From TrEMBL:
Lineage: Bacteria, Pseudomonadati, Pseudomonadota, Alphaproteobacteria, Rhodospirillales
Pfam families: GAF_2, HATPase_c, HisKA_2, PAS_4
First-tier enzyme category under EC: transferase
Protein name: histidine kinase
EC number(s) on file: 2.7.13.3
Residue ranges of every copy of the Histidine kinase domain listed in the record: 332-534
Species, as recorded: Azospirillum formosense
Statement: the UniProt record of this protein carries the keyword Transferase: yes
Signal peptide: none
Domain of life: Bacteria
Keyword Coiled coil: no
């Protein structure tokens, strides 16, 4: 009996040695780069040989609902094809039940097991009488698959058999987890590489010596593989400037500062010289990388192209400087024009005092009135365009012009000037000047001709937008114009100087002037309607 036990123990030791050798070989080949199927095949062959049986490994599919066939030793292809896709669940035969419960399932006689009933014909055909299935579990307890032993005669495993199966199953779990981890790492690496390559900025990782450990395509266009602050040749292609115009030293480059622990964000602007000699503006940001102990292990740098933005800003600054110079010139001209009006006003005023002939005096007084009106228009136009030389708000301009006309020409006890203009309508200064002269002429014309010596009345100026056009309406409630008045007449036909000026300004605006009698308050009145394009 002792001899029998010694023989059995010796056989167990030899089995353990062979299984450990198989385990060691499988692990070494996996580390050497062998595929998962190759190293798992080593384990099932060892299991089949040492247990005098056939063996297979099944793997849980991605959905976790079925088992797909992995590798086998001694099983015919017809059988593996038939059981590929075993359902995982409480009513499944050995493999599917073991994967479902996470516990070992031993079926000593498959012919007597109700869960195997759908497969009895298959098991008889291939000589399968017993099936032991052990779940392959990950470190966290997740079931990865099942290690299954098949016997040709009904039998139960002994303690040594179970130890052998457990060793092989544990090794298979290590190999499967390692394979999954590696595939996940490769997948993450591929995703990261894809993301980096498609980023619209250059990205690079450098070690503490300034050597590139990873970069993307755009960064490879910017650098030769070294951190500019750590490479004499590379540094010559990067120029940055302080606010006073002095160049930035290499020791103050973002990469050098990041290696000292500084986070350089949003970055520093550099003029970068490409390999073909062209220069582009870029913005460089950098941050330190630290290991698990907090020590700086490298630098990540990001380069973005800001050339269009930078040159646009430079162009805008130059344009603003030019606009300011033009504005100063235009305002100086406006001052000179107003001074000229004042000088002319004084000269005409002196001339009026010396004229005794009634007709001549009337003509001089008319000229004097025109000079006053044009001076008012020029002053209001200058004030309205003080902050924006190109455009102004038409309503504000007309309101101020109305205030000036009221103060200079209107007796408040006799006549009222009403300005009704929609705000928020921008108008070029040139258009506003012409419109202001037209309003001035029409208002003065109404004050002079619309009302009798003792009549009171109202002159209304309305301005509005009509689609793509602008409409100016000047209406009075006076006696109205005589027939034919206000129309364009040939030179020398007696048309007044005022209407000649108005029609000329209307043509300048590309507009159309209509005149009618609105019949307000029992008096015909007069309405001038000017429509012109915006």
């Amino acid at each position: 009996m002792d001899d029998h036990r010694a023989e059995r123990d010796g056989g167990g030791a030899r089995r353990s040695e062979r299984l450990l050798l198989a385990q060691k070989t499988a692990l070494e080949r996996a580390i050497g780069g062998a595929g998962l199927d190759e190293v798992l095949a080593l384990l099932v062959r060892a299991g089949a040989e040492q247990l005098g049986a056939r063996a297979a490994i099944f793997l849980v599919n991605e959905g976790g609902l079925t088992l797909r066939f992995g590798v086998a030793a001694g099983l015919p292809d017809a059988y593996t094809r038939a059981v590929d896709g075993f359902e995982i669940g409480p009513q499944a035969p050995s493999c599917g039940l073991a994967a479902h419960t996470g516990e070992r399932v031993v079926v000593e006689n498959v012919a007597l097991d109700p869960r195997w009933a759908p497969y009895h014909a298959l098991t008889r055909e291939h000589g399968i009488a017993a099936c032991w299935s052990t779940p392959i579990r990950a470190v966290n307890g997740t079931v990865l698959g099942a290690f299954t032993i098949y016997h040709a005669t009904p039998c139960a495993p002994g303690p040594l058999d179970l130890e052998s199966v457990d060793l092989l199953t544990h090794t298979a779990a290590l190999l499967i987890e390692r394979d999954r981890t590696e595939r996940e790492r490769q997948s993450s690496e591929a995703l990261l590489s894809s993301v980096l390559e498609h980023l619209p900025v250059g990205v690079a990782v450098y070690d503490t010596q300034g050597r590139t450990t990873r970069n993307n395509r755009l960064m490879r266009d910017y650098t030769n593989g070294s951190l500019p602050s750590a490479d004499d040749q590379e540094a010559q292609r990067w120029r940055a400037f302080h606010s006073d115009g002095c160049p930035v030293e290499r020791s103050a480059f973002p990469g050098a500062r990041a290696l000292k622990g500084e986070i350089v964000v949003p970055g520093m602007d550099f003029l970068h010289r490409a390999a073909d000699g062209t220069e582009h503006w870029t913005r460089v940001s950098a941050a330190p990388l630290r290991d698990g102990d907090g020590r700086i292990s490298g630098v990540v740098a990001v380069v973005s192209d800001i050339d269009a933005e930078k040159r646009a800003a430079q162009g805008l600054a130059a344009a603003l400087d030019e606009a300011r110079r033009s504005e100063l010139v235009a305002h100086e001209m406006s001052h000179r024009i107003m001074n000229s009006f004042q000088l002319l006003h004084g000269l005409v005023s002196m001339q009026t005092a010396t004229v005794t002939d009634p007709a001549a005096r009337k003509a001089v007084e008319q000229a004097f009135s025109r000079i006053q009106a044009m001076a008012l228009v020029q002053r209001r136009l200058f004030e309205a365009t003080r902050n924006d030389l190109a455009t102004l708000d038409a309503a504000d301009y007309l309101q101020r012009l109305g205030e000036s006309l009221t103060g200079a020409f209107i007796d408040s006890g006799r006549c009222t000037l009403v300005i009704d203009a929609a705000h928020g309508i921008p108008m070029p200064a040139a258009q506003a000047s012409s419109m202001g002269l037209i309003v001035t002429e029409m208002v003065l014309n109404a004050l002079k001709h619309a009302f009798g010596a003792h009549q009171q009345g109202t002159v209304t100026v309305r301005f509005e937008a009509c689609g793509d056009n602008r409409r100016l309406t000047v209406t009075d409630d006076g006696d109205g114009l005589p027939d034919g008045a206000g129309t364009m007449k040939p030179a020398g036909s007696g048309q007044g100087m005022g209407m000649t000026l108005v029609h000329g300004l209307v043509r300048q605006l590309g507009g159309k002037l209509e005149i009618d009698r609105p019949n307000q308050g029992g008096r015909p009145g007069t309405r001038f309607v000017l429509t012109f394009p915006a």
